[in-house]
Design goal:
- With 71 residues, the protein is mostly helical.
- 58% of the residues lie in helices and 0% in strands.
- α1 packs across α3 and α2 crosses α3.
């Protein structure tokens, strides 16, 4: 899925990028729910294999992507 926002990353962030892309494929409402869950420290499907720092990066990336749509 192509986004208007390009996520800067290096090879260590491939797992994070894949999770972000998978979550974005679920649609805007689901992404907003994922953001809320991550902010609350709740589990989000697809993030189980990520460490806390990677989950924080997923949250930051989702916020940045949704900022494009929420303008």
């Amino acid at each position: 899925m192509q986004h208007a926002y390009s996520i800067p990353h290096d090879s260590d962030d491939v797992r994070v990028e894949r999770v972000v892309e998978a979550l974005c494929a679920t649609g805007c409402n689901a992404v907003r729910a994922s953001i809320a869950a991550l902010e609350a420290g709740l589990p989000v499907p697809g993030t189980e294999q990520l460490d806390p720092m990677e989950r924080r990066q997923v949250l930051n990336d989702l916020r940045a992507i949704m900022a494009v749509y929420d303008r």
